[in-house]
Amino acid sequence: MVATPIKKKYDIKDISLASKGQQRIEWAAREMPVLKQIQKRFAQEKPFDGIRLVACCHVTTETASLAIALKAGGADAVLIASNPLSTQDDVAACLVANYAIPVYAIKGEDNETYNRHVQIALDHKPNIIIDDGSDVVATLIKERQHQISDIIGTTEETTTGIVRLIAMLNDGVLTFPAMNVNDADTKHFFDNRYGTGQSTLDGIIRATNVLLAGKVLVVAGYGWCGKGVAMRARGLGANVIVTEIDPVKGIEAAMDGFRVMPMTEAATCGDIFVTVTGNKHVIRTEHFDVMKDGAMICNSGHFDLEIDLQSLRAKAREVKEVRNFTQKYALLNGKSIIVLGEGRLINLAAAEGHPSAVMDMSFANQALACEYLVKNREKLKPGIYKIPKELDQDIATLKLKAMGITIDTLTAEQTQYINSWTVGT
Ligand code: ADE
User: Fold this and answer.
1) pLDDT band at 425, cuts 50/70/90?
2) By Cβ atoms counted within 10 A, which residue in 237, 347, 374, 409 is the most buried?
3) At what angle do helices 89-99 and 18-29 cross, to 10 degrees?
4) Same domain for 212 and 255?
5) Same structural domain for residues 226 and 284?
């Protein structure tokens, strides 16, 4: 008799990294008290019993805590990477070895492997998809229409994914509920701003060991992520220039005290460039041509298309890895340009992503959004939903408490005043 090959329930770099991963996951969990509390409640209430769940996230120590909480709540969960360069291989190993969570993610995986992992995740026949960038949902809609009847809903982590979901809704192809985690106050005010702000600079520094003080640092995009990068770069002594396409954000950046100008101008004087726009080819051929010798460019937006690397490659006579995550493009014009993290999210490629203390709130939103989908599955129509205000406020209250901070409460007189319109001048 010929034995049927048993399909391996994971695809990771090296299972022997599990104990290192365990140590790092525990370290990160110290800063994630809100998610921990949710995990404890999930363990008792089991809101996800019988639910198949796919999480497509950056496989980090923080994502591990989310996966563990969902599993504690009864979910039959599979985890895949949301970016080829963001996986922490020790974390992947630990989740497989110590928590029996199937993980398909290897740092440095090629696009083909990345897409194969998306397919494996869909083979799990999920009822809920946690997406970061919307690749699983987009693939489901494009290639697996027959599985849509299994879907209770999806939750989306990031701005880029929300933009894609809105496009799907406008095209009439989003036929199930989607929870917009990104726009929860306890997510984007902290994760996008302070998380991206710190982790992007952390990535640049780990990759290059460059001194930011005195450097001209150009931030493309002044959304919450751009605001965070600009603010933190200024804090380290960089002379920050902002580029924008939105007039309101342009004013905001100017009134926050940054120089604002088009990229064609900024390209001539920047030492370090960071793209955080969510759009395509923000730094492109005409910009490379006028950059200073040795200019460094990197991206902290979700996809690796913000820098037109193909046209940069066409201008290069040699591309050489000079440090980890640092490639020197020697150009035919005699100058060189340094590309960090292959144009992928520098904070996750060269560093460890956002610190746990902010991911605590982001992933508390994810966990509660999944629970909300399950609890309201009969009521929710197709569409994109905000995280309910009460959940957002609950997360903020728990976080404040964990931080040992107390705030004021309204007096009865104030409550009455704020709810009335009769008292004026
Ligand atoms: N996105 C940004 N930072 C992250 C982190 N530490 N874990 C998961 N997703 C992230």
Assistant:
1) confident
2) 347
3) 100
4) yes
5) yes
